[in-house]
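Page 42, continued from yesterday. The earlier attempt failed because a stray header line got pasted into the input along with the sequence. Redoing it now with the clean sequence only.
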Amino acid sequence: MILPEPLEVLIEELNKLPSIGKKTAQRLALFLLRSDDEYIAKFITAIGNIKKNIKICTDCYNISTSEVCEICSSNKRDKSIICVVEDISDIIAVEKTNEYNGLYHVLGGVLSPLSGKDVESIRLKELIDRIRNSEVKEILLALNPDTEGETTSLYIAKLLKEFNVKVTRIARGLPVGGNLEFADEATVGRAVLNRITLQ
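This time it went through. C-alpha cells are written below.
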C-alpha cells in the first residue's frame, strides 16, 4: 500500500528516534494522525519548548531552564564531591537512587579513538578547571563499565594524581558492558554506595 507523502515523511522522521523501528514509527504516525488538534498542538509546542527553553548548565553541563542547574545552585548538595558521568541520562539514573547528594560533571562522551573521541572531544579540561577553582575533595567516576568507560576512568585517575583529591569509582554492581541508563535503581544505588578508591 502506498501511503500519502506527509505520512511517509512523518514515519521516516519518527524512525530516526532511538529504539524506534519502522513498524513502531508507523504506529506512532497513525496515532498522531488520529489524534485531535488540541493534542497535536500541545505535542508540537512541547517539542518546540525543549529546543527553546532548555539550556546546558555552565558549571556541570547538565540540562536546565537556567544558566546554572538546580543541582549546582542547591545549598543542600555536598559541594565537596563531583560525580563524573558520560551523559545527562546517567545523572537521571544516579539521581533516581536517592543515594548520592553531591554535584555532577557531564563529560559529553568517553575516550574512544575508533569513534573519533579523544581527550579534546570530552570535557576533561573543564573538570580540571572545576577542581582547581573549588574545594572538591572527591571525584566519583560513574562511567559505564565497558572498555571505553574503563579507559576514560583510568585516564582521569592518572590526570588527577597532581591534585589533592580522592578518586573513587562506582562499585561493580553494574554488569560489564552494561549501561547506567538502563540499569535498575537498586543496582545503580548499590554501585554508588559501594564505590571503590582508585588513588
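Notes: The radius of gyration is 20 Å.
Reminder to self: strip header lines before submitting.
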